[in-house]
């Protein structure tokens, strides 16, 4: 019996996935693939590395490629770079960057220099333009074919300014993010050879096989699985396993990771390495610097919170697909990478837990569902904020996001969600859009389609789009299928514009024993409207007015609900007729749930004149 049920379940899941594909980026969806093999020699005295990289690159696109691009992220950490200049010109710079890049000396700057590059054995010409390497191919790469790129490169690790770097304020020797020449992503929108200015990433899905040769005293943390724990030790060995480090001053750490779009590592001789197991989930690895009792006490408490967060995420948003996850003291803010995060190690326990939980949620929104962060930052930071608030729980866990949205609207510096992450005029407007409005996109969608459809949709979204690059159409199509409602208008207004929502109660009047309540749409963005009426006998009922272009209505179960005819968006007002005298009404309120992002709530409540 069990088998039959399981089979039915499988078929149901399979057909669901198929039907979603048929609607979203369609069966025309494709993505490139990259298989990296790297051998790295790290010089911990000069803070430089030299590397050999073999990249097997699969062109799964329908187009022939005659050029390719690589990111050279470390080049951003040089005086006069685009990142430096942008940081000095923007009116609200990230204080962690400020003018610090402009003051870096020759030994402190970062660089990545490509010494040699071949395609299928043929030498290529290439040009370094800031943080991008422009490469002209020796022979075009046809659709459904591959090319093998072999590269020799050198790099200097910058003093840590942001995310990546060495010798940061917390004393971590190496936080190695964005550290290797990385193929830019090519997708249905073409090349994404974006210079590194401040934020957000987009990478090619694939596999990494990385060998790092480094001074024996260093403990490493990295994306993926260590292949030679018996030669390394340092807490990677299984219980009782005998460790035999090879002779010599150096050790070669060999990591592999499959089905990821980036590879991060960090190294310090003072790392403590501890593990914890998520029941039915990944093994957690924690790396933090020893020698500080206060820090140690906090990091000892971190595993329990991390386990709990993984369990809640698995339960509500889809199952984390890898077998390991590393929480690494990187010494600067918090940043997500596949199967790992680099976070600040010090500060309050609350702060440490908050950052860890936020970054691990990126395993869902960025690590596994890899939206192009530059173009859809709100789909990873915002969905992350939503999931984090959701698993934290409480009455209305999203209140903070709404407040920050209202503040930016009031300052009149809001830009549409669809703005490229680097191109916002204000950092604060970017931060609000990505983290807060992206969260509201989902929280408010729950108001529009119902929470049940929303949460089912979030799981379907994960299962359908894991290990891929979805966009805003893809999430909307899933939510449409899950709710049975048409939602293109929601995306068009909320993502593409800065039109705001404002509904008000214009007047309440009595005629022939009935009450007429006139509502008005003041803001440009239309929404379905919920009006809760309270009566003098203490009872309450909800009056629900769907938006006509939704082509349906959500299911409401919480409160006695009266469904009214649709409100088409062109009409500025709408009159509700209630079969009771105005004298029996004590209060009329639009959206007491406060999940509609109504920018002026002062006109949402009215009491009939007695
Ligand atoms: Zn984040």
Please give a structural write-up.
The chain has 610 residues and is an alpha+beta fold. It has 3 domains: 33-348, tricorn interacting facor f3 domain (Immunoglobulin-like), CATH 2.60.40.1730; 374-496, Neutral Protease, domain 2, CATH 1.10.390.10; 503-606, Immunoglobulin-like (Sandwich). Helix content is 26%, strand content 30%. The strands form 7 sheets. Strands 5-4-8-2-1-14-17-16 form an 8-stranded mixed sheet. Strands 19-20-21-23-22 form a 5-stranded mixed sheet, with helices on one face. Strands 28-27-26-30-31 form a 5-stranded mixed sheet, with no helix packed on it. A hairpin with a 2-residue loop joins strand 4 (111-119) and strand 5 (122-123). Helix 6 (377-392) crosses helix 8. The structure holds zinc ion. Zinc ion binds at residues 358, 362, 381, 384.
């Amino acid at each position: 019996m069990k088998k039959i049920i399981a089979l039915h379940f499988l078929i149901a899941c399979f057909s669901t996935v198929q039907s979603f594909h048929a609607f979203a980026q369609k069966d025309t969806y494709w993505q490139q693939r990259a298989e990296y093999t790297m051998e790295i020699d790290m010089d911990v005295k000069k803070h430089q590395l030299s590397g050999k990289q073999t990249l097997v690159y699969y062109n799964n696109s329908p187009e022939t490629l005659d050029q390719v691009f690589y990111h050279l992220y470390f080049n951003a950490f040089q005086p006069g770079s685009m990142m430096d200049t942008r940081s000095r010109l923007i009116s609200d710079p990230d204080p962690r960057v400020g003018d610090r890049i402009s003051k870096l000396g020759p030994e402190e700057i970062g660089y990545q220099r490509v010494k040699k590059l071949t395609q299928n054995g043929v030498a290529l010409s290439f040009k370094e333009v800031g943080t991008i390497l422009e490469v002209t191919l020796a022979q075009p790469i046809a659709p459904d074919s591959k090319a093998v790129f072999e590269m020799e490169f050198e790099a200097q690790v910058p003093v840590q300014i942001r995310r990546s770097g060495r010798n940061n304020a917390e004393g971590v020797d190496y936080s190695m993010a964005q550290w290797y020449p990385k193929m830019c992503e090519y997708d249905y929108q073409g090349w994404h050879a974006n210079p590194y200015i401040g934020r957000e990433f987009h990478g090619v899905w694939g596999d990494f096989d990385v060998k790092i040769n480094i001074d024996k005293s260093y403990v490493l943390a990295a994306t993926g699985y260590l292949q030679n724990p018996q030669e390394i030790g340092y807490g990677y060995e299984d219980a009782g396993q005998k460790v035999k480090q090879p002779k010599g001053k150096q050790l070669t750490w060999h990591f592999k990771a499959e089905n990821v779009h980036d590879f991060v590592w960090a190294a310090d001789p003072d790392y403590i390495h501890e593990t914890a197991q998520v029941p039915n989930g990944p093994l957690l690895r924690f790396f933090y610097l020893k020698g500080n009792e206060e820090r140690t006490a906090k990091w000892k408490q971190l595993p329990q919170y991390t386990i709990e967060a993984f369990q809640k995420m698995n339960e509500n948003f889809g199952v984390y697909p890898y077998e390991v996850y590393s929480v690494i003291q990187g010494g600067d803010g918090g940043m997500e990478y596949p199967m790992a995060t680099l976070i600040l190690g010090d500060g309050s326990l609350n702060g440490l837990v908050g950052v860890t939980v936020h970054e691990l949620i990126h395993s869902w929104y960025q690590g596994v569902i890899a939206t192009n962060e530059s173009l859809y930052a709100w789909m990873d930071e915002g969905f992350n904020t939503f999931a984090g608030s959701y698993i934290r729980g409480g009455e209305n866990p999203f209140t903070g996001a709404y407040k920050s949205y209202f503040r930016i609207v009031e300052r009149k510096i809001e830009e549409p969600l669809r703005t490229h992450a680097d191109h916002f005029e204000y950092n604060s407007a970017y931060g609000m859009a990505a983290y807060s409005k992206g969260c509201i996109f989902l929280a408010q969608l729950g108001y529009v389609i119902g929470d049940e459809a929303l949460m089912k949709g979030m799981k379907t979204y994960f299962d359908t789009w894991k290990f891929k690059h979805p966009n805003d159409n893809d999430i909307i199509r899933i939510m449409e299928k899950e709710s049975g409602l048409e939602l293109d208008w929601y995306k068009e207004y909320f993502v593409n514009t800065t039109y705001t929502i404002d509904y008000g109660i214009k007047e309440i009047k009595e005629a022939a024993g009935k009450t007429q309540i006139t509502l008005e749409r003041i803001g440009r963005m239309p929404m379905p409207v919920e009006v809760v009426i309270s009566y003098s006998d203490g009872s309450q009922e909800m009056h629900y007015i769907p938006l006509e272009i939704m082509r349906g209505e959500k299911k409401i179960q919480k409160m006695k609900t009266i469904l009214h005819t649709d409100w088409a968006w062109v009409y500025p007002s709408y009159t509700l007729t209630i079969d009771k005298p105005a004298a029996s009404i004590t209060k009329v309120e639009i959206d007491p749930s406060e999940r509609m992002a109504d920018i002026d709530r002062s006109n949402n409540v009215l009491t009939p004149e007695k």
